[in-house]
């Protein structure tokens, strides 16, 4: 599964993935009800100037507008939990989509019956279309892995969790409608955009309905030729915004009008803009199984050919003596990860520059005992050895390659199981690092934002703005960038790394310990380091993020530590 980005923001801080494609947009809220039989006409007001300019660009491409069909739904006038912006978002999305050649059906503040009628009408039009787009703005929630979109009256009719199926719209109903084969070329495109994670409207039911306490939306399986975009990452809330539009739609409608940009690049730009506006609190994601390139405006620009020098040359230089490096033999054959002994010592932990987030405080002096830590993040080659030996689930590599790339799409429980297996295989004590151990190793004796200084340097890491060929595209093979003073690679970005410490909003001692009760309800554990899709502020040594132990993402991996027998 592809989450083309996850810079996370914890509560206050960043606790924080398209041809016969399916694009569903869930966005916001709306006002007056509109009959799906007679789609709401677009506002008579003069189109935005940029839209007029874009129409000029689009004219050669708009000879058959009916080949692009969109259904835009915005619901905001909920009785018990009204939303300000979904209807505005729906109005603006409808304008922009019409501007770029879509035949638009717009529905606002509709009942469940009217929503389904509109979807059925949409489905009929899709039979003659090449591109289908579904957008929803309003309340939505997940329950038992399914996503439910709320019609205008749902707040009054849903009393228990079992009512969700009959009183709200299951998002799979939309996917099933859009799955209809539109022509024989297999180059059709479906897009689904969901901006429906404003908050969980059923807090009063939480205590009596297990599973209703999940925030946001769940990940959905993406059909071939489709794309699903979310206003924020799974299991998190999106902002309704203080202006006319939600932060997501504010930037989405601008990016759609830019000529020659692919939908993947467009959504990446939206993500970056939303994250910047919300101080990393909201991180949109999109998941693509598209079979061809698609641009909303004009022909897609051909990407620049990569430089012949743009290759990963593994940094083989090592400041380490041979007594610092080791690999433990495995009973099943082969060796474990390459490890580096780290001397004990004290360091200042937290936001030393004073420009970070509240969860990076208070800055404290921490003593760390002697331990060894992985020289690199655990690779697919190393993890696949564990999978073969134990029959564990094989993680998806997103078709980026395995071997020396860091393993991704592994949960905290997966990573812990791997460490336990190393312990059993080597008769040594392996585990994930505590937060304190991780930051001590990442800083390697420095007090700057990154181990090399306070500013990002080109080709020292892979992130959104690090200047490498992999930025915002995928992981880099481990060891492509220089090592820090401890001889460790990729402590800055590439993948978020699981720690063994429970996440708390401020330091209170848990950062120096491993979780005791791994099955505790509501448990969140801390990840560190940022990823290939994280902005520079999110890859600082002090930056922290929280995740559930069972979550798996293509931006998250891990490295292990080994504890000497003398201090177990």
Walkthrough of the structure:
By secondary structure, the protein is α/β, with parallel strands linked by helices. The chain has 2 domains: 266 residues, 3-Layer(aba) Sandwich (Rossmann fold), CATH 3.40.50.1460; 243 residues, paralog of FGE (formylglycine-generating enzyme) (Alpha-Beta Complex), CATH 3.90.1580.10. 20% of the residues lie in helices and 17% in strands. Helix 2 links the parallel strand 2 and strand 3. Helix 2 packs parallel to helix 7 and helix 7 runs antiparallel to helix 8. The longest helix has 15 residues. The N terminus is likely disordered.
Number of strands: 21
Mean pLDDT: 81
Shape: elongated
| DSSP summary: helix tally | 11
Biggest sheet statistics: 7 strands, mixed
Beta-strand residue fraction: 15-25%
Into which percent range does the helicity of residues fall? Answer: 10-25%
- Structural domain tally: 2
What is the C-level CATH assignment of the largest domain? Alpha Beta
CATH topology grouping of the largest domain: Rossmann fold
Q: What's the gist of this structure?
A:
With 568 residues, the protein is α/β, with parallel strands linked by helices. The chain contains 11 helices and 21 strands.
């Amino acid at each position: 599964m592809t989450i083309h980005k996850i810079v996370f923001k914890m509560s206050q801080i960043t606790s924080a993935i398209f041809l016969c494609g399916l694009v569903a947009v869930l966005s916001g809220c709306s006002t007056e009800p509109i009959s799906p039989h007679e789609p709401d006409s677009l506002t008579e007001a003069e189109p935005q100037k940029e839209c007029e300019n874009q129409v000029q660009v689009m004219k050669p491409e708009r000879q058959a507008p009916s080949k692009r069909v969109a259904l835009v739904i915005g619901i905001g006038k909920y009785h018990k939990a009204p939303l300000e912006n979904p209807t505005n978002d729906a109005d603006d999305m409808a304008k922009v989509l019409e501007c770029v050649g879509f035949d638009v059906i717009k529905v606002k503040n509709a009942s469940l019956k009217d929503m389904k009628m509109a979807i059925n009408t949409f489905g009929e039009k899709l039979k003659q279309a090449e591109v289908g787009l579904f957008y929803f703005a309003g309340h939505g929630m997940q329950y038992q892995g399914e996503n439910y979109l709320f019609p205008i009256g749902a707040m009054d009719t849903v009393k228990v969790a079992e009512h969700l199926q009959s009183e709200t719209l299951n998002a799979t109903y939309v996917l099933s409608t859009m799955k209809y084969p539109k022509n024989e070329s297999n180059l059709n495109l479906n897009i689904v955009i969901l901006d429906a994670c404003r908050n969980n409207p059923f807090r009063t039911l939480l205590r009596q309905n297990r599973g209703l306490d999940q925030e946001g939306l769940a990940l959905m399986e993406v059909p071939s030729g489709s794309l699903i975009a979310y206003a924020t990452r799974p299991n998190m809330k999106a902002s309704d915004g203080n202006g006319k539009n939600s932060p997501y739609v504010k930037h989405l409608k601008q990016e759609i009008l830019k000529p020659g940009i692919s939908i993947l690049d467009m959504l990446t730009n939206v993500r970056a803009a939303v994250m910047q506006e919300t101080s990393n609190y909201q991180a949109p994601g999109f998941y693509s199984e598209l079979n061809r390139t698609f641009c909303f405006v004009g022909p897609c620009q051909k990407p620049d050919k990569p430089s012949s020098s743009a290759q990963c040359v593994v940094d083989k230089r090592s400041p380490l003596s041979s007594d610092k490096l080791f690999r433990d033999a495995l009973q099943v054959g082969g060796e474990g990860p390459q490890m580096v002994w780290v001397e004990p010592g004290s360091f200042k932990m937290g936001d030393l520059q004073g420009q970070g987030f509240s969860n990076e405080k208070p800055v404290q002096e921490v003593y760390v005992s002697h331990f060894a830590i992985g020289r690199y993040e655990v690779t697919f080659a190393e993890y696949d050895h564990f999978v073969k030996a134990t029959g564990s689930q094989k993680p998806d590599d997103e078709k980026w390659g395995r071997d020396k790339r860091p393993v991704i799409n592994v949960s905290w429980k997966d990573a812990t199981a791997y460490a336990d297996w190393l312990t059993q295989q080597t008769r040594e004590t392996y585990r994930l690092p505590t937060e304190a151990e991780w930051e001590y190793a990442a800083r390697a004796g420095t007090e700057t934002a990154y181990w090399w200084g306070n500013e990002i340097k080109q080709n020292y890491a892979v992130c959104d703005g690090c200047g490498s060929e992999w930025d915002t595209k995928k992981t880099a093979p481990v060891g492509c960038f220089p090592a820090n003073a401890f001889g460790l690679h990729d402590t800055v970005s590439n993948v978020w790394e699981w720690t063994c410490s429970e996440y708390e909003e401020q330091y209170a001692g848990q950062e120096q310990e491993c979780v005791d009760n791994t099955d505790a309800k509501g448990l969140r554990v801390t990840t560190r380091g940022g990823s290939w899709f994280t902005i520079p502020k999110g890859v600082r040594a002090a930056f922290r993020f929280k995740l559930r132990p069972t979550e798996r993402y293509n931006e998250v991996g891990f490295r292990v530590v080994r504890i000497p027998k003398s201090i177990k």
